[in-house]
Every structure is written in structure tokens, then in C-alpha cells.
TrEMBL record:
Residues 26-190 form the Nitroreductase domain. NCBIfam families: BluB. Pfam families: Nitroreductase (PF00881). This is Nitroreductase. The lineage of its organism: Bacteria, Pseudomonadati, Pseudomonadota, Alphaproteobacteria, Acetobacterales.
Amino acid sequence: MSEADCPAAPVFDDAFRDRLDALFQWRRDVRHFRRDPVPEPVLDHMLSVTCSTPSVGLSQPWRFMRVDAQTRRLAVRNEFMQRNAEALAAQTVSDSTAYARLKLAGLDDAPHHIAVFCDPDPAQGRGLGRMTMPETVQWSAVMAIHSFWLAAQAHNVGLGWVSILDPSHMASLLDADPHWRFMAYLCVGYPEEENRIPELERRGWEQRAPARHHWLRR
Ligand SMILES: Cc1cc2nc3c(=O)[nH]c(=O)nc-3n(C[C@H](O)[C@H](O)[C@H](O)COP(=O)(O)O)c2cc1C
């Protein structure tokens, strides 16, 4: 867009801020999905909004890969089951069976599966800003995932982030560019129910700390 085509900047008011607060508060990591698909124009809009995420040097290093083939989805499910079994064996969790089932429900029911990769050395951005901190490329990709998550919620679409997976195995079973780094596996679809409280909090696993605990001063 040229500067001449640029519309006037909007003024964000209290009513907008209230709605934005609600978006942040109601965004959830979703594990239980309805099976009806999200319309493609909605998915396209979510990605289009995501592409305005800040990125180091304007490199836009995120790569969103739709995983549609049933054979690949099954391979991801098997990968998750194996890694999750290892994770559960490594710790004592009283409700481990129910916990494991939670995540499988997401992988089995979500109509859309999206793997997110990061190109660690994209031509775009021409290396700007990443000489001393090359990891900023990956941070940019993580920020894009957060944008996608919020954009989904704004369309009343749920997203569940699955990370109990081996990154290099995921890259090979999804035939990704060998240089890319696997960042996330996202289950996407309409949630069976909306909830204001994170699932892990409802299950007594962990609680959010109050915001005041997150200010440090020196
Ligand atoms: C980087 C990252 C990785 C995550 N990986 C998993 C995962 O493998 N399994 C899972 O159940 N939740 C995963 N989550 C979701 C968190 O458990 C969830 O965000 C947290 O419990 C807070 O709940 P909320 O997102 O509903 O507010 C992940 C979240 C992030 C940001």
C-alpha cells in the first residue's frame, strides 16, 4: 500500500478497549472441537491479519503449512502418542490418562491442522537486526502464532497448540524444507464450548499469577 492510499488512523476508544480486553481474556488453548470446517475465507483472513505481525528486519520468517492428508495427520498423531508417553513416563501425574486423552481429542476432532515452521535465514529482511541475536527470527515466528491465535478467537474459532513432538521428526514427516525449524502444531476449529478459565486451571494443574507479580523494578 502506498502512503497516498493509506486511510486515516483510527481512534481507539474505551468501547474498543473493552472488546479487545474480552478477546484477550476469552482466548483459550482449545482441546475439544466441533468437526464442521471453518470457511476458507475466514482462515484466509486469519492469515492475512497474522502477516502484519512485527518481525525482525521485516523478514516474515513464519511458514504456515496446512496438513490435510489423512496419512500425514495419522503420522503426527502417532508421533504425539509416542512423545506424550515418554513425557508422562518421566513424571508422576495423578490424572495422566485423562490428560493424555485431552490432547488426542484435539488432534482427532479438529477439522484443520496447521504446522508452523520458521525459516531461520530468510532472504527477506536481508539479515537486518539478527546479527547479534539470530534467535529473533524464531521469536518473530512465535509472535505470528500469537497473532493467528487472537485472529482465530476474533472469528470465534478455537486453536490448540501441540508441542509434545520431536521437531526434526515433524519436519521430515511433513516434508518441510530441511533448513526450516518446526515451531508448533496447531489444531484449529470451532470450540465445543467457550471458557473464561484455562483448562489447566480448571483441572487444578496451575493458576495464573496476578499481573502485579510480573512487574519488576530495579
Ligand atoms: C509455546 C506453547 C506450547 C504449548 N504446548 C502445549 C501442549 O503441547 N499441550 C497443551 O495441552 N497445551 C499447550 N500449550 C497451551 C498452554 O497449556 C496454555 O496456553 C496454558 O495452559 C494457558 O491456557 P490458555 O491458553 O487457555 O490461556 C502451549 C502453549 C504455548 C504458548
